[in-house]
Structures are given as structure tokens and as C-alpha cells.
Design brief:
The structure holds 2 protein chains of 2 kinds. By secondary structure, chain A is mostly helical. Helix content of chain A is 72%, strand content 0%. Chain B has 4 helices and no strands. The radius of gyration of chain B is 20 Å and the shape is elongated. Classes of the chains: A mainly alpha, B mainly alpha. Chains A and B meet through helix 4 of A and helix 3 of B.
């Protein structure tokens, strides 16, 4: 993909980091406010896609992004499974609350194992949407091989 | 009532795009519009005026919360819609790489 004009590059350089931080906020506060893993992961992926569209990529970057995003996607899925299986081994039920009385309700450190599930889903969704975009946008390179 | 009519109008706009347009990208946009109209209807049905988000900080009696069930349903529908849209676009790209056009009429000449 070719990059875009300097106007788009400057604006993307300013707001790209803020979009990423906002996505992390939505993921981390998913148990307290509207949002959560999927919405935050989609926002993070939007920031990454904005950077790719604005600055452009080469064929080798597309290939390495596909590999690294599939690694992150598998990591997110396995983390989510790990939270569920830890509940099975510790408490006897799948997805049982690992820390039932940890932290105060309504604060950031609370809600047991829900934030860990949110973080896992956020990683998985961000990597999955980014890899969908890369595959759709760089079919030229992939079909050539 | 006006919400039902607005959702129906959005649905019909998507249906019009699917039936009449020959560009495959426009057909995909029509599919997405129909999907969004249904999501809109479900999300609005759970709305109540002056209601709080359905997140319980503590048990508070006498406050009005909006219905969380349609929101969970719509979130699932959005995820499924993302997958369906990505699959549709990938099929369109395969066809574009083979016949070099987004026109639906061009596909009918293919065999098998």
C-alpha cells in the first residue's frame, strides 16, 4: 500500500496514540462502564489500521504483520481459555470467579476474573480485525506467492 | 412508533440497494444497512427515558435501568456481522481478481 498525503500523515501522527490509549481504557474499564473487550479491541485495531493506511506499508511488512497478528490472536484465545480452565481447576466450575472478595466494588481493582477475560478478548479482537484488514488490503501480495 | 418506521425505512434502503444495484460493493453496503437497521431496532427497544446504564455498582432500589438483554444480543449480532461482512468482501475480492470487475452481470458469463 502506498502512503497518503502529508496532511493525513500529520493528523494520524497526532491522534493515533490517543486512539490506542482510548482503546486500552475501554478494555481496562470494561467491568465498570459500557464497553469491554470487543469494543476496546475494535478501537485499538482502528488506531493500528489508521497508522497503516496513513504511512503505507511494503510487502515484507504485510507478511510480518500477518505472522505477528496471528501470534497475538492465538495468545488472546489461549489466555481466555486459561482463565476459564483456572476456574475449573481451582473452584470446580468452568469460569468460576477466581478472586471473589478482592478489591472494592466500583473501583478499578475489583470484579474478580472479569478484567482478565476482558484483556484477553481485547488482544484477540484487535489482532483479528487487524489481520482481516491486512488480508483484505494486501491480496495482491498474497495471491502472488 | 416512529422508531419502528425509521428502522423499517433503513431496512428498505438496504433491500433497494441489494435488489437494484449491479456493483458488488454496493450490494455489500446494502447488506450492512439491513443488518444495522435490525441492530438499531433491538438497541432502541431496550431504551427507557431517563434510565441508567445497566451496571450495578450496588443494589439501589427505585432507580430505573435500561434493559441489558437487547444490548447483549446486539453485541453478539455486531460480532457476527463483522465476520459476515469480512467474508463477503473476501469473496468479492476473489471475484475481482478473477474477472477484473465489480459488475454482477460479468459473473453470469462464468461457468462452473
Amino acid at each position: 500500500m502506498k502512503g497518503m498525503t502529508p496532511i493525513v500523515k500529520v493528523v494520524a501522527r497526532i491522534i493515533g496514540g490517543f486512539i490506542f490509549i482510548y482503546g486500552c481504557y475501554i478494555v481496562l474499564y470494561g467491568h465498570l462502564s459500557p464497553g469491554g473487550g470487543f469494543a476496546g479491541g475494535a478501537i485499538i485495531a482502528a488506531g493500528l489500521i489508521l497508522a497503516r493506511l496513513a504511512f503505507g506499508t511494503t510487502a515484507s511488512q504485510e507478511r510480518s504483520t500477518l505472522i505477528s497478528s496471528s501470534i497475538f490472536e492465538s495468545t488472546g484465545g489461549l489466555l481466555f481459555l486459561l482463565v476459564g480452565l483456572l476456574g475449573l481447576f481451582v473452584g470446580g466450575y468452568f469460569f468460576i470467579n477466581l478472586f471473589p472478595s478482592f478489591g472494592t466494588p466500583g473501583r478499578l481493582v475489583s470484579a474478580g476474573s472479569i478484567p482478565f477475560s476482558n484483556i484477553a478478548i481485547g488482544i484477540k479482537v484487535a489482532a483479528a480485525i487487524l489481520s482481516i484488514f491486512v488480508v483484505l488490503a494486501s491480496t495482491k501480495y498474497i495471491f502472488k506467492e | 412508533m416512529i422508531i419502528l418506521v425509521a428502522s423499517l425505512i433503513l431496512f428498505l434502503v438496504g433491500l433497494y440497494a441489494i435488489i437494484t444495484k449491479r456493483n458488488m460493493i454496493k450490494v455489500a453496503v446494502g447488506f450492512s444497512l439491513m443488518e444495522y437497521s435490525v441492530n438499531f431496532l433491538f438497541a432502541i427497544v431496550g431504551f427507557r427515558p431517563g434510565a441508567l446504564p445497566p451496571i450495578l455498582q450496588a443494589v439501589e432500589v427505585g432507580k430505573v435501568y435500561s434493559d441489558p438483554l437487547p444490548q447483549a444480543l446486539v453485541l453478539t449480532a455486531i460480532v457476527i456481522g463483522l465476520g459476515v461482512t469480512a467474508f463477503m468482501l473476501s469473496l468479492i475480492l476473489r471475484l475481482y481478481n478473477r474477472i477484473g470487475s465489480f459488475d454482477l452481470e460479468e459473473i453470469q458469463r462464468l461457468k462452473g
